[in-house]
Amino acid sequence: GITSLYWNDQSKLFCLIQTTQIIPSGPILQDRPFVVVWNMPTAQCKRRYNIDLDLGDFDIMENRHQSFQGEKMTIFYRDRLGKYPYLSRKGMKVNGGIPQLGDLSVHLSLAKTQLSSLLKPNFKGLAVIDWEEWHPLWERNFGAKMVYCRLSKLLARQEGPDLSERAITSLAKQRFEASARKYMEETLRSAVKEHPKGLWGFYGFPFCSNNYTGRCQKRNKKQNDQLSWLWGQSTALYPSIYLPRRLEGSVDAALMVRYSQSSPLHTTPVLPYARLAFTHTLTFLNETDLVHTLGESAALGAAGVVLWGEVKFAKSMVCNVCKGVTLLCVSDTHHCSLQLCHGNGRCARRCPSSGRMFPPGPTVTSESEEINLIVESPRGDCLHSHFLCLCYPGWTGQECQQKEEENS
């Protein structure tokens, strides 16, 4: 079975139990335990401000010409993959409107054709499906999404006009969730079958509403457990760690990030989505806020982070600050992997709730005027005290020093 893992217990006992259960995914890039995927128009930094981010030097993954669809990473929005059923902003039904009224076979056929023309057979990049109009769990469709529940009830009432209101709601929920599951599950299954080396997953899953206390709400744990079918088909997880403005400069931001990355399936790579500006604003994250997102993710043992942005994000200061923080994250995780894990695993906190960050790796410098990154090399015992190794598949031992037998 699939065992859910939530980093929400402060006890040392839980920390010890949890760390013995984790089996991490392999590195996204060879010999690099943590990568930053640049999903924004970095060319603007060079053209407008003559700031060269030297992405290749930092092992940052990007597509050619900073496009949203390419050989390293591809995003499929609602109109870019098959015939996803949803309601337009004006309330018009598109492809049936709700999952129950969509044509799944037509959707899958078109999606297969689109994938074949867009991706090479050996595609092994990140593949993110961004469907945000409705949620596959009935109770998560609140606010603007409640219309999907209302239309589902109308459909159920047509099927059983003599049913009680309670029975209609129950039937509507059952039909909606079953159809939503089929759309998401079969789409993933088909995509993985055609491009098995790709890292396929849905944006925003798993989810955690923790009110910035560092603990996921109990109902979120239950809801994520109900999505075991989704974790079973996903080959990567892409939770969102976008920060609201009220967390600017606050340590609560790290708590939000920490418990938004609860991985239901330990062997599945976790690459949270981060944003360079606070949600619904153009107020950019400063160095501290970036450490709370990128640094926290790295210390938790994530495979990497996807930085999402728009063309208006290409500001001079943002380019420089991001360059510095990214350099530190990539450098420190790589150093820890080499020093603690023989390069055969990634480091992660012994206790995820400890808040410990990676000690700086070997001295690095940045020419940025906004951020000074001259640091000193840490002692090995500092790493051993607060971090452990999560060995890549094929390696074992406390320091990932032993190669596993193929038949073991």
From TrEMBL:
Q: Return one Gene Ontology term, BP aspect.
A: hyaluronan catabolic process
Enzyme Commission identifier(s): 3.2.1.35
CC per GO annotation: acrosomal vesicle
Q: Which InterPro entries match?
A: Aldolase_TIM, GH, Hyaluronidase
User: Annotated Gene Ontology MF terms?
Assistant: hyalurononglucosaminidase activity
Superkingdom is Eukaryota
Q: Which SUPFAM superfamilies match?
A: (Trans)glycosidases (SSF51445)
Write one Pfam family the protein is assigned to. Glyco_hydro_56
- Positions annotated as active site in the UniProt record: E132 (proton donor)
Give me the reactions it catalyses.
Answer: Random hydrolysis of (1->4)-linkages between N-acetyl-beta-D-glucosamine and D-glucuronate residues in hyaluronate
Q: List the disulfide bonds.
A: C45-C319, C208-C216, C336-C347, C341-C389, C391-C400
Protein keywords: Disulfide bond, Glycosidase, Hydrolase
Q: What class of enzyme is it?
A: hydrolase
The family annotation for this protein states: Belongs to the glycosyl hydrolase 56 family.
Protein name (database record): Hyaluronidase
* UniProt source species: Mola mola
